[in-house]
Please model this.
Amino acid sequence: MTPDLCEGFRRNADGSWTCIRPSVLTIGGGQPVTIEIDQIVRPGEHLGDYDLAAYLERICARNADVE
Model:
């Protein structure tokens, strides 16, 4: 995953992230996962074995607009 992924998500005040563009991610073992518009990704929730919210927080939060 790359910082370009940041453009597909908006950070929420509670630390969760809302998908604003459909995103297809490849996670552990090459498994594709589709994140739909308006889907919320919360801290501590895992997609497979991957914590997407932690990644977004680490890579994207410094430039995110919080709503």
Summary: The mean pLDDT is 84. The chain has one domain: 3-63. Residues 52-60 form the longest helix (9 residues).
